[in-house]
Amino acid sequence: MATFVDQVTLHLRAGNGGHGCVSVKREKFKPLAGPDGGNGGDGGDIVLVADNQVTTLLGYHRNPHRASENGQPGMGDHRSGTTGADLVLPVPVGTVVSDASGEQLADLSQAGMRVVVAEGGQGGLGNAALSNQKRRAPGFALLGTPGFEGDVTLELKTVADVALVGFPSAGKSSLVAAMSAARPKIADYPFTTLHPNLGVVESGQTRYTIADVPGLIEGASEGKGLGLEFLRHVERCSALLHVIDCATLEPGRDPVSDLQVILAELAAYPVPEGQTPLLERQQLVALNKIDVPEAAELAAFVREDIEAMGFRVFEISTVAHKGLRELSFALAEIVEADRAAKAAEPVPERIVLRPRAIDDAGFTIKVEGSHAGPVYRILGAKPERWVQQTDFQNDEAVGYLADRLAKLGTEEALLKAGAVPGATVVIGPGAGIVFDWEPTIVSAAELVGNRGTDPRLDRNDRRTTAERRDEYHRRMDAKQAARDELGTEREAGLWTDDEGFEVQRWEDEG
């Protein structure tokens, strides 16, 4: 079972945004008091954080599928949906993050660095947020957009000052154990070290880290042994220490030939752009196992030849702890010089956020050919997001999308691109949203009527004072006209009072 993993692919799914709500407030004496639909919550992001307490990517190797929470939909009474919680994933310091295409997204080289690798979806607006003076009663809301879904690759590149390289069983792990408090696995068979081991060394006032890299053999660049896979851990090192086994009994091997083989394999390793090639960095040679008499004689014999190649040579024994103090101070000197050089380097330019150019329309139109004629594809963050937010089962929402696209200038751009009525237009990459373009319709208002209005909200049954006064005068005039008509008919003898009663006239009383 694997105990150390330095490269893994994560399958991520960020949270989707919640849908907006369509609601109309209802209360006593106000059955239709206006729209009150809340907004949907944003989906949770997935964030990587460099953590000193994490040393391997093993947990993500065993469980590579990770997802953050979705945003909750909006509700009535102006209640917005809950925002989905972010998913924070701790990774070792030195982790390089790349997307599915291999493009580097971030280099988490310092503890505490954070990067959002999967952005959550945006919550949709409710009809309360969409209402205004012209659109008093929206009958639609915006949908939440989906969050990022895809793969990212995590590659651990150990952050160490000095890397130990050499053949298997050369004593690299023993040297780490002798110079630091680390206790790597040590055995008397090759390829004991299957993953890098780190140790912290203190030399006087200097503290630095050393990394034991699994052994290299001739042909490692062609895939033999463990190959060059683990050399990614030496990319950040200031110096290389070649550990040479002077007590090996394998035929055809000697310290000089071993060093030449390691140098050839290091030269075959391609470092990332902008970094110093491995062979151009400071290099020291440690002739190990001089506690064996034959090895001590061999080390003294080949020392001049190796120094003639331009290397500083140290004769050491990890068992007897010989020569380790001198080696430790020599490495500390190189590390201090490299740190001083890096401190003198100019500070990287600050990131400047510039506003969008005035002539940037926010979208582009590409003309693509097909068997049915040209297809006009609209690409851009805004139109693609607007399409995702539109409920195409709601005519009013479709009309709102048409208005937004018209304000963005897609009509003029399509005309300039050569589109004609009935041309096929696609919004977004891939399949996208396909429709037949009709430039004569400025918006979809002609199809769905007066959008954003509701006659029930505009109705007001309460009469004004002037209307009640006019109604009273008309009623009084009608009563007087009826009395005059009855008097005229009685005087003309058209009818008499019932039961012999006589109608008394006001004139007779006078």
UniProtKB/TrEMBL annotation:
Its cofactor is Mg(2+). Its EC number is 3.6.5.-. Its main location: cytoplasm. Gene3D superfamilies: GTP-binding protein OBG, C-terminal domain, GTP1/OBG domain, P-loop containing nucleotide triphosphate hydrolases. The keyword RNA-binding does not apply. Residues 355-439 form the OCT domain. Keywords: Cytoplasm, GTP-binding, Hydrolase, Magnesium, Metal-binding, Nucleotide-binding. Residues 2-159 form the Obg domain. Residues 451-510 are annotated as: Disordered. Residues 160-336 form the OBG-type G domain. Residues 453-492 have a biased composition (Basic and acidic residues). GO terms for molecular function: GTP binding; GTPase activity; magnesium ion binding. It is an enzyme of class 3 (hydrolase). One of its GO terms (biological process) is ribosome biogenesis. GTP binds at residues 166-173, 191-195, 212-215, 288-291, 317-319. GO terms for cellular component: cytoplasm. PANTHER family: DEVELOPMENTALLY REGULATED GTP-BINDING PROTEIN-RELATED, MITOCHONDRIAL RIBOSOME-ASSOCIATED GTPASE 2. HAMAP family: GTPase_Obg. Belongs to the TRAFAC class OBG-HflX-like GTPase superfamily. OBG GTPase family. Monomer. An essential GTPase which binds GTP, GDP and possibly (p)ppGpp with moderate affinity, with high nucleotide exchange rates and a fairly low GTP hydrolysis rate. Plays a role in control of the cell cycle, stress response, ribosome biogenesis and in those bacteria that undergo differentiation, in morphogenesis control. This is GTPase Obg. It comes from Agrococcus pavilionensis RW1. The gene is obg.
